[in-house]
Amino acid sequence: MNLENQHVVIIGGSSGIGLGVARACLEDGASLTLVSRSSQKLAEAAAGLGATHRVRTFSADMTQEDQVRRLFDEHPPAHHVVVTAVQPYYQPIRQLELAGARRTIESKLVTALLVARYARLEQNGSLLFTTGIAADRPGPGGSVIAAVNGALVSLVRALALELAPVRVNALSPGWIDTPFWDNFAGNAKAQRFEQHARRLPVGRVGAPSDVAHAALFLMGNGFTTGEVLHVDGGHRLV
Ligand SMILES: NC(=O)c1ccc[n+]([C@@H]2O[C@H](COP(=O)([O-])OP(=O)(O)OC[C@H]3O[C@@H](n4cnc5c(N)ncnc54)[C@H](OP(=O)(O)O)[C@@H]3O)[C@@H](O)[C@H]2O)c1
């Protein structure tokens, strides 16, 4: 068990990829603090994970500086901090509403900056952010998420130098079946997934567990920093 006696803070851990990372970390022996805005989602996630004595929750909006500071002030230093939080916004650029764009920029990029600013980490610790396929394969209406994901790629490289010896990496998921898709595609989700799976070399869309597997590698491998690990089923090739 690589993560035995280690503590992992997962910002976005109440849903989707973050919850998948939480499950994998628990199986690998870690204790966890799951962070998201909704205390109800956090309670449901913790109950679903079972091992309650190893799972704490902390309800906070990680776009708010005082709440990020409080998270790290009130907890002992973590071994790893994983950030998967997103408030997505998709709109053709000519119909862009700045408030929506700001939610995505703040939930992914500003949160990453605040975590880098305030996280207290054990020696040999790491930060792990989440960029995404839109950085490499942008779609119509996705300019905001493409820009934010691209910025995160540059950010991990800069932080890997500035925060060394803390390691700083990013996951870059392709299409992963999470609650995000239920909101984004609704009833069309199954059909879109089927079409997408036919295009991908691996013949299926991803599951949170696929990304979690990569997260464990990035947390555990002490010789990897400034890296973006693509978990996209070959999406960038098609
Ligand atoms: N799913 C995909 O196909 C896909 C593809 C490429 C990249 N990604 C990236 O992967 C990451 C995870 O996506 P996902 O599909 O797992 O999303 P998800 O299921 O919607 O989960 C998002 C999580 O972020 C939390 N969150 C949102 N805003 C927050 C805030 N301000 N402060 C604290 N927590 C916040 C949410 O909980 P609350 O609502 O309770 O705050 C939730 O736990 C994102 O960065 C996304 O861009 C996903």
From TrEMBL:
Pfam families listed in its UniProt record: adh_short_C2
The organism's place on the tree of life at top rank: Bacteria
SUPFAM superfamilies reported in the protein's UniProt record: NAD(P)-binding Rossmann-fold domains
Entry keywords, A to Z: Oxidoreductase
Keyword Cytoplasm recorded: no
UniProt xrefs under PANTHER family: DIHYDROANTICAPSIN 7-DEHYDROGENASE
NCBIfam families on file: PRK07041.1
Family the entry assigns: Belongs to the short-chain dehydrogenases/reductases (SDR) family.
Protein name as it appears in the record: SDR family oxidoreductase
Organism listed in the record: Archangium lansingense
